[in-house]
Amino acid sequence: MPDRSTSGAGVMSGPPSGTPAAADRSPALNLPRVLGHHSLREQVSHALRAALIAGELRPGVVYSAPVLAAGFGVSATPVREAMLDLAKEGLVEVVRNKGFRVTELSEADLDQFTEIRALIEVPVVTGLARTAAIEDLKALRPAAEAIVTAAKARDLIAYVEADQAFHLGLLGLSGNPHLVAVVSDLRNRSRLYGLPSLADAGALAASAEEHVQLVDALVARDAAAVEELMRTHLTHVRSLWAGRD
Hints:
single chain; 3 strands; elongated
């Protein structure tokens, strides 16, 4: 299994014996572990999403299924199946006889995704400060603290996974699973290419602390503070995490 650290050391030095050579010259990848009780295809799909969001898989680079499979420690078949699922969502595109290329995002794409998220998440989360049960809000604190822990450790994959769990768990308190699905899709599509540079600059931990502050404001029933924190947080998603100031 690959090392989850983000020190820059690659998890693959080349395809193992008997594995077809990569169709690309892609950089070494720090891929998340493929674990769980779901089907192998679902596990690989989840791991690929995490790598996409964290920027481990970069736009413009062609990744072959055999090389990705070697990094995950699985066969190439579930990787191809998972990548085809991502292609249907517009996250990657098929490069015939070579592999898959991560879809490029424009400035307009990122602005539009952030605008939609703000229209949905700011009023919904602000409303939860008034309507959600206090115990449900307090139960979000471990997830918020996990984001901070991952940020301090510069474990970007763990950071993304904890961040996803926190935000979707928070929105889940609205009781609207369709809303959660829409925001999950927007988060996946926008991806967080700037996380490594943010971590290098020492700013990732400060951004992570916003999640704990948000829980505190929610538990205090401070709707005005919640609204301000959500707007600030989404601004950071666009200007910092996307790496496109």
